[in-house]
Amino acid sequence: MMIAFKRLAALLVFAIAASWSVAPSYAQPDIGNPQLSQSGTGAMLGISRDKPQEFVSVMVYGAKGDGVTADAPAIQKALDATLNVYFPAGTYSVSGSLTLRQGHKLVGAGMMSVTLRQDSKVTPSAGILYANSGKANSKLTGISVSDITLDGRVAVAGFDEHQHLASFNGVDGLTIERVRFLGYRGDGLYLGSGINGGEERHNTNIIIRESLFDGVNKDNRNGISIIDGDGVSIEKNVFVNSTRKDMPGPIDVEPDAHIFHVVRNISIAGNSFSNTGGTAGNICFYLISATFSTPPKNFSVLNNKLSDSTSNGIFVAINSTVYSDPMNLQIIGNTGVTNRAFHMRGNVNGFSIIGNDFKNKLPSLLGEKDSDNARNGVVSRNNLTGNGSSSAIQTMSGSNLTFSNNAFSGYANSALQMGSANSTLNNVAVIGNSFTAITGTGYSVYNAGGVDSASAVYQGNTGGQTHHFP
Question: At 78, which helix (H) or strand (E)?
């Protein structure tokens, strides 16, 4: 009894400390803002803007913007001549890639007024807008793009995995705001490490905000792919009609199989998702291709609206490597109707799932195989509602896991299913949760095997017909 009491006290301190590390309020932000408004079809409207005084119009260099003239040579002349480039209202036919350099600032007359239309294939992974530092230890700094549309014409040209709209490789301080990525064939935005296999480039201090990623027909790769990125903020964007069913998802953090890739300090906050596809989820962290020299860590998924019952919400996969640093994954304040609210695979160490409100039809997973190891995690103050056909959360092997003050409703047979015949679960606490409307046998918690009874705590829970827990 004394062991269980000490264990309970330690777990409560751990759960409270985790909750103090985040803001106490989980209210959803308003996706709209003065520049953007959302219609019923997911379209967004950008305000019209006059040419800033210090900017030079591409029409000075011969661009027409009439949707007929091949404008790429004139636009490239403007880019080569000046750093501050302005696009008046119009549709610009672009063949090939427009190459950007350090300090380039591209501004359009408005997101819905200016379109750069992709009218030919580009070098794979280069994109219609393209920047590449050329060296592993070099970066292009201070590039920004705002108030334009990039159109990949996927409905006409069809899916092509490596035909991106914008590709940035080795950049620092990149800002993308109020840009509509329309009908991309591959990715809308690609943050890479070069366009040839094995090249090393690093991207740092990236902001992507108040933009629209509209795949048009879901025949695309990803809205945003991050192959390499340290300090990436993806905030207040809208993702609609994006990603075919055999590609990862609208946002995919997925380094290639090279140990030099860096993916850390990534914040995904205040975004909206609807009518999305993908085999993994709306938001994916797919970190299995290598044991990286710089451990992946510090991922925040905050206050997003996930709305697609056919796709998973948040997907995290990491290989069996035991990194010295915890992953520090925070999933906080999100809402949505999803297939699975969250799906974790592999060796996920160090996570907080706090203050979310999810409706889902399949159980969320903390591990999908006996050998998966979810460690040092808190699941607290969430509202999780099922459709009466499955459990809420299934946990395989793991240790130091706390499930506290959650509200579970609408689940069949059990809200929490713990372990399996071949798994091992140590130091698991189920504290202060409420269980309602559980159908079938009605277990609040079901021990399917492997739970260590000496270190398990079941305390202060309400509802449910009974529990099957040490």
Answer: helix 72-81
Contacts of 141 (CB under 8 A, 6+ apart): 102, 103, 171, 172, 173
Residue 422 exposure: Cα atoms within 13 Å on the Cβ side: 6
d(CA 56, CA 210): 24
- Examine residue 369 and state whether it is found in any structural domain, yes or no: yes
Neighbour-count burial for 272-293, b at 16+ CB within 10 Å, e otherwise: bbbbbbbebbbbbbbbbeeebe
Task: Please indicate, yes or no, if residue 59 is contained in any of the structural domains.
Answer: no
User: Does a structural domain hold residue 69?
Assistant: no
**Are the beta carbons of 38 and 238 closer than 8 angstroms?**
yes
> What's the pTM?
0.90
Tell me how many domains the chain contains.
1
Contacts of 147 (CB under 8 A, 6+ apart): 46, 49, 107, 108, 109, 110, 111, 114, 178, 179
Closest CA to 136 of 207, 187, 206, 198: 198
Q: Does a structural domain hold residue 411? A: yes
CB atoms within 10 A of CB 17: 10
* Cα(459)–Cα(470) distance, integer angstroms: 11
Closest to 190 (Cα-Cα) out of 157, 220, 147, 153: 220
What domain range includes position 429?
2-34+95-468
Please tell me the predicted confidence (pLDDT) of residue 103.
98
Report the pLDDT value the prediction gives residue 311, as an integer from 0 to 100.
80
Domain with 371 in it: what CATH number?
Answer: 2.160.20.10
Mean pLDDT over 154-183 rounds to 98
Cα gap 454→425, rounded to integer Å: 11
- Tokens 């060296």 map to which residue? 135
**Alpha-carbon span 128 to 15, nearest angstrom:** 47
Output phi, psi for 139, to 5 deg.
-135, 145
Q: What is the pLDDT of residues 292-313, one digit of tens each?
A: 999 999 999 999 999 876 789 9
Closest C-alpha to 217, from 72, 42, 390, 345: 42
